[in-house]
Amino acid sequence: MSDLLTDRETCASLVTEFGSPVNVHNFSSLQRNARDMVDAAARHSVDLRVFVARKANKTVGLVDAVRDLGHGIDVGSHRELTQVLERGMPAERIILTAAVKTRELLHHALTHRVPVALDNLDETTLALQVSGDAGVSSPAVLRLAPEVLDGLTPTRFGERSSIWLRFLDSQQATDIEQRLPVVGVHFHLHGYAPQHRTTALGQAIDLVDQLRARGHQVEFIDMGGGVPMSYIDDAAAWSRFGQALHQAVLRSDDALTWRGDGLGLYCEDHDDGPRVTGQRDTYPYHQELVRGEWLESVLTGEIAPGVTAAQALRQRGLALHCEPGRSMLDGCGLTLARVAFRKHTSDDVAVVGLEMNRTQCRSTSADFLVDPILVRTGETGGAESVDGSHGSTDSWSAPDGAFLVGAYCIEAELILKRRLHFPRGVNVGDVIALPNTAGYLMHILESASHQIPLATNVVASGAGFIQDAIDTW
Ligand SMILES: *Cc1c(COP(=O)(O)O)cnc(C)c1O
């Protein structure tokens, strides 16, 4: 990313050739990201296999990179499944976790012997029917909804241990063994707390023991995703932002964000003065424990007095699977957008218009809190910036900073909600780079409203960039 951003000519030509915005990928960091996890597990003699969550980035380039590195992939829909099979991913390196599985999807997975994470009893009944009709036997993984203990939050995914066991006990044992042999137990938790993973691993291990006692040959536990990554190295900068936002909300000040948006925080008036309430609704963009170190803290956590998760897995000869999305895409891509205009709102707030819309850099987080980078590719004649050095009569002034706005005809169409400062100005034709957007931010919520086409995706290849196959899939 750094190399590309120092190469203004290439930035300018990418936007010219592929349109704005353009999502630029380079999957060379994937190897390090996955190795971090595998090596950390190996230090505790745990055999870890990585299944990258397909939904975190839609490029086919990602599938190819994962395949070539020998890792696996977690798919969530029929198209994702068909596609990874077409790209030559072996069935045993795929897991189907789709939240809703149609008969057709189950048929496709079961006839290709792709392991299926079964979410509920209706789905399992359907899967038994489909495998019976097709006369196939295909590996099943039970999705466990961990009990709400030790801080674990309730989940709509999976079934509780007791429900699975009661169901299995009510079936013809041979039906399950012949059609849907249970090879694993799966869970995927919201949030990032390592101690929650340890707790859930403990519960999954209990379920494995009970399944094995019933004769099922369970080989692995899949701990899902939610592996943290850190976008911002500087812990102090991150905590300063948190404090500044709190203060801004308390003072109903719009110096930091668009119209004083609290990113989930609100100011409430009380007799003794204003008070900040609510919860900041943003991804933890700075995190101390990421990937390997985080996994070590999961594995060294105790699931019973004196027994670590790693020991319990080793003693049972269980492999550990994981399905990280975001953290595997750390360093794998950025978004470039062209500056179209600069202006002021009717109440004199400076805005910079990008050839882009807000769904093209967006996740469930209330804002993307990584600083964008200005690449000065624009016209330096004519309308000039606050730079001062050019002394142009057309100079565009934003001494209080400006907001990035986009193409949707909505008043609050903000690319980022934070006020940005342009000490050397900003020109039409400049490129704004949004760094490290490959995990979710470019794709998970993108839309084509106003019939504006979706952004083009390119992947680094040799000396240049080529358009990814997903754009015409
Ligand atoms: C979304 C999802 C993942 C990936 O989560 P990350 O937070 O990106 O690591 C993995 N497994 C399942 C079942 C998911 O739904």
UniProtKB/TrEMBL annotation:
One of its GO terms (biological process) is lysine biosynthetic process via diaminopimelate. One of its GO terms (molecular function) is diaminopimelate decarboxylase activity. InterPro entries: Ala_racemase/Decarboxylase_C (IPR009006), De-COase2_CS (IPR022657), De-COase2_N (IPR022644), PLP-binding_barrel (IPR029066). Coiled coil: none annotated. Its cofactor is pyridoxal 5'-phosphate. Pfam families: Orn_Arg_deC_N. Residues 35-235 form the Orn/DAP/Arg decarboxylase 2 N-terminal domain. Keywords: Pyridoxal phosphate. It comes from the Bacteria. This is Y4yA family PLP-dependent enzyme.
